[in-house]
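Issue: copy button drops trailing tokens. Both records pasted manually instead:
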Amino acid sequence: MLNFLRHIRAAATGKINVELELRDMLKKLNCTYNLTEDEENHVKRYYFDFQSGNFVAAFYNEIGVEITYPNCFSVPAEEIELMRLNCNRFNGGSLFHRFFYNGNEEENTLSLHISFFCDNLQEHFVNLLKACFQVQRDFIDEYKKIRERDKEEGGPLDPEHRFAQDARELYLIRKQELTHQVNAPAAADADTESKLTLGEVISKLFPTDGIEYTTMSTIAGDVVSKTAGHKAISETELQSCLISVTDGKARFVADAAMLIVNYKNNLTNDPERTITIHLKAEGETSNSVFFRVTATLIPQEVSRANTLESHANRPLTISFLVQYSTASEKQRNQEFEYMWEDAKIKIRDGKYSELSNDQRLLAEIWQTNVAYNLYWGQMHLRNERYYQALLHFENAYNSMRSEVFEYNEAQRYNFSEICYYVGFCYSVLKNYEKAFFYLNLVSGTGKIRFATAIVNAMANSADVRTFSAIDGIMEEVKHEYNINLNNPDDEENEDIPEHIIHFVNFLRRRRIYAQIEFNMLNEAEDALTQMLNEPENADYAMEELAYINQLRIKQQNNKSDELPF
């Protein structure tokens, strides 16, 4: 009754005595308390125990109270990066509780504190107080997971930066996880500091063994020209159709251009084939111009050996944005040399914690040309400029491979990273055969990035080895984590790291994609039906089930069109 009357008075005056409310709540909960006052800062603090936890309530004014659950978890001081990472994660996802930490110099440890603000003690205080214990358990469980993952990744440099970088690379890899309803992923960017010759571009995008260019027609604005001969066509610079450079300034001379290239294959008796390359001006800055390259390999003629449904008869289109920069080679060298020297100085002075993953890899490379190409390749890769990244990574690979058997363990690790980068870029550019060549060099290393890239390359190219590769990886995961592979979201998988759950779901989706590619529709449909009840896979399952339905209708229509003899 007294509380009711006090709230009636508060409603009339617009003010509630929060301190009296707290005392009432603590009395109801049978909590004893000690009161201290900081007169200088006008702060009152109530120290009380609740369910074996020590809490502090602080009043700064009459609008509410801040409750802190102090020193509820402790870790060694050298794990400060992990503590910071986990606090940032939980602060970003928690609606009511705040997570922060401080150091104990005497014990060389870090202590976690959890707090919440409450302005309506009657409704929320008890629930938020009890919730402190649950979020404490969640924080500790997640911390143990990222600490274990940090050990696997070779920490302790800066896990927050490394995890963010890994997440970025996984995002780029996952963009290659195609579904059957949508078009290919949005065109990726590519950057280049060198001339784009037609022969080089085509060799990166399409299989070119044994091909000989015969004729090429170029249409730029109102100008039409023809070129004959393999050498002349191969050495044609793409940017010359659109761009003119005068006094160090690049400008467009046409809005668009089209190259129609015919070629024959001297290793086969196949008819001539055609590649079209469309160039379109996209914009310019003070020292760069941008244009889009869209290359299409026209399908082969339909025959008994090459039906309408065959993979060989599907049009293959790759599109990327090119930045043509007038920056000098000297300027690029100066930027690289500064970053390389900075990384080596930090290694020399023992400042490992200040190194990013890119800098650490860069500092361990002793060949200047390899380090230069690795630096610029990584710069382009992080920003989805895959074509130029590929040129740099291939240069680095070619410089290192002749000495690979003389390398120590750290050098071989660097070489495997470069193999992965080359294969990854080829996979994005849909040259899956070349992608698999490089990615296969790093198979079996246990890295999720590597395994994800290999599976994408195989599944997207309808490689017959896709099933055995995925099944082999799944067995390894099952043996390592004792996970229920048929339903990763099952309660029995509660203690499995979250990134492993996501990886297993990725493998399951890729296996279903391959089943559809190989017309194993019944098996794919059964697996997709199960996925409809899984939050991470439900959208994918609905899209693929719709596609299977379209396939069956199409197959039935084709069957009805067959002749009766």
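Record 2 (pasted manually too):
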Amino acid sequence: MIKDLYSRVRQYKAKTIATPIFMVLEVLMEVLIPAIMAQIIDVGVANMDMRYILIMSVLLILSALLSLFFGIMGAKFGSEAGAGFSTNLRHDLYSKVQEFSFSDIDKFSSASLITRLTTDVQRVQQLFTMSIRIFVRSPMMLIFASIMAFRAGGVLAMVFVIVIPIIAIGIFTMVKITHAYFTAAFKGYDRFNQVVKENLAGIRTVKAYVREDKEKKKFKDSAENIRYNFTKAQKMMAVMNPMMMFVSYGCMIAISYFGAKLVNVGSMDTGSLMSIFTYSGQILSSLMMTGMIVVMYTMSKPSMERISEVLATETSMDENENGETVVLDGSVSFENVDFGYKEGSKVLKNINLEIKSGEMVGVIGTTGSGKTTLVSLIARLYDTSKGSVKVGGKDVRDYNIKALRDSVSVVLQKNTLFSGTVRENLQWGNENATDEEMEKALDIASALSFVNEKEGGLDSHVEQGGANFSGGQRQRLCIARALLKSPKILIMDDSTSAVDTKTDRKIREALRRDVNSMTRIIISQRISSIEDADKIVIMNAGRIEDVGSHSELMERNEGYRNLFETQTKGRE
């Protein structure tokens, strides 16, 4: 897991390697300073040798300056490597998510993926930066300072043999206990983001139904869950600092007591005792810093696991890069198709349907009958559980997925516009489209008039989500965007539901007149939107109940006839 994540360093590898080298050099300079000071006291001061004191003082200052330089360089390269690492990690995560099928995204949830791309990556970045700097510096300091302490203090340095295992056991125990709480806390972030996302997306609905209090409670509960788990973990971690300080001061007292006795009997020089004090501070501080790294690792481990889970997930849908790249025509065939979003469930059951190239087909049915799921299989947004879907006479799984989707335009129930301009949104359909092509697509979608009325026309501003356009206008812009792809198959999933019947009729007439070579599949709740289709498919409980023209269904299907009469009473 760690090896896989750290492989994302890539172009920052040189800086990543340079950082620990500078850290080691900084440590070497730091551990030399107490030894030089001991020599100044024990040799220079004791013998009143000013020349020796000056030489060693210059050496001391040089060591301090070099230590400062190496420390600055290590910090510089470390921060650049850490920032670069997180950039690469976010890029790889985002690229991986782009490869996911709809079912893969359903598995993780969009809120969880957002948390992994933001909070989790930030924590892993912090751990990475600490690991190439402090994680190298602290053990090296511990090793070199211990060597120098034993060299200077001999038996007195045995104090550290007792101290180090006590601190190590305390750190290990704390990590073991807190890991579960941090894992639960990060899962709580997913729920927290989901609550915020839903509330912001549905703020008008919340206010319309006066549900602010309920939403506040949901927010408070999700935030409380995070607070509880973090508080439990932090309380346990809070014990570590007092424990470290207690052990540190105990160590200093022991060194002072036994060191004074050794100096009195002449077994140790004063300078050596002073250097022992300095080395003990370095050893204990390095132990504390190592403890901090372990704490950071404990906090970051759940984040690493969550990021690795995304990166290690193989998409459930093979893009078939070497597959067919040419879709011959817009014919569609469903052969004994079953489909379920979850294993063991069936949303579509034994679907058999033939659609000829260039036909206009209407799909109607009650809510939850499987209409949207049916057309989602054509663009291979999902794969069938059983049977096959063919486009242009070939199974959709035999096509290169990009080539297939370039030949199929889908205007979904939830229409999405991106912040920018009308032109930029239309260019999602064809980035090289001319103004004339855009205007023609807008005209077919009955959108040209209101676009021209906007100041700037095609270059008029579009707010996030198309908030400065009405629901019907957003739908018509999405239809125009889909038409610019010049697809073999156009799927309109209830995409004129917010449009008045007069405009709806104009759009259907334009589709029949101007793009009659295109296979058009229109899902609608209004029979008036599909009554002039070549054939109408009636869906019911995941099955095809009937297929026929409007006149045929009126004659033989009582449910269709009753629905038509109900919808046209007002008109009559």
